[in-house]
What does this fold into?
Amino acid sequence: MSQVNTVQGPVDGAALGSTLMHEHIFVLSPEIEKTAEEWDEAAEQTRAVTKLRELKDKGIDTLVDLTVVGLGRYIPRIQAVASLVPEINIVVATGVYTYNEVPMFFHFRGPGTVLGGPEPMVEMFVREIQEGIADTGVRAGILKCASDSPGITPSRPRSCRSCGNGV
It folds into this structure.
C-alpha cells in the first residue's frame, strides 16, 4: 500500500482509518497572532488537543489539515499538538489559499510579475512534498488549490497551474 505523509512521518494508506478530509486545526492571520492580546498560544494548543481527543473518541483516526499559506499555516504549532495526540494522524497540505489574489509574496514574483522569474509556487509545492515544509522535516501529504466567492480572479489561474505543474 502507498505511504501517506503525516506530521509524525509516513503512514501506510491502509492504516489511515476514518478520515476527516477538510479541516483546519488553526486558521489565523500572523498579524493577529503577533499583536492581539486575545491570542494565548498555550491555551489554543490545549484546546486543539482536547478537540482532537474528542474526535478520536468518536472514531476518527486521521485528520487532513488544509491550512495552507494564506490561512496562517504554522507547522511547529501543528507538530506540538500532534505530539500530544499521537493516536490521530494529521496530514498537512501545501498550496496557497486565495480569496481575491495570491498572497503578496507571490504577487510580485513569477512569470509576468514585476520581479519575474520561474513560478515560486511550483518550487514551493514540490519542495514541501519532497523535502518538507520550512525546516520542520514535515512533508506535505496533500496539495490544496482553493479560492473563495470572488471566483476566478486574474491571479487565480497561477495557483491552479502551479498545482498541476511538476507536482
